[in-house]
Design goal:
The protein is an alpha+beta fold. The protein has a single domain, classed as Conserved hypothetical protein from pyrococcus furiosus pfu- 392566-001, ParB domain. 23% of the residues lie in helices and 34% in strands. It is built from three helices and nine strands, in the order βαβββαββαβββ. It has helices at residues 23-36, 56-64, 95-103; strands spanning 4-11, 38-41, 43-46, 52-54, 69-75, 82-86, 113-119, 122-125, 132-136. The strands form three sheets. The protein has a four-stranded mixed β-sheet. α1 (23-36) crosses α2.
Length: 140
Amino acid sequence: MKLKRGVRVCQIEELKHHERTEPRRLNALREEIESDGLLRLSIAVDINTKVIIDGHHRVRALEELNCTKIPVTFIDYQLPDIKVTVWRSGEIISKSDVINAGLGTIKLPPRTSKHLVNLQGKWKHVSAIEEQVNIPLKEL
């Protein structure tokens, strides 16, 4: 099974959020990216729907910095080597909940979904497959 489908630079407006962002975390990340003058990591996006799987704060930060593009690591979200769980105990979420929120108008609260990928038999956070890109903001 091929998890990743490669990194491409995409128009931010094409991507679909499934979660809202946390203002404090967003402000801190935007300031860090602006200070560094570059974006260090790509975001994870479902190749079939363009729903953001991981990287909502990076997308919003770039939007606030007037960027129009972002590097994306495309994944096939429906593969069994990708699963979704929750950050807060007692909650339940499914892949279809994530996709429906991304394609619909009602977004999930921040940090609702936690995505994991199976890498050589071990479940790791999806950020483990996001590529280090170090792209200057002026190129985005």
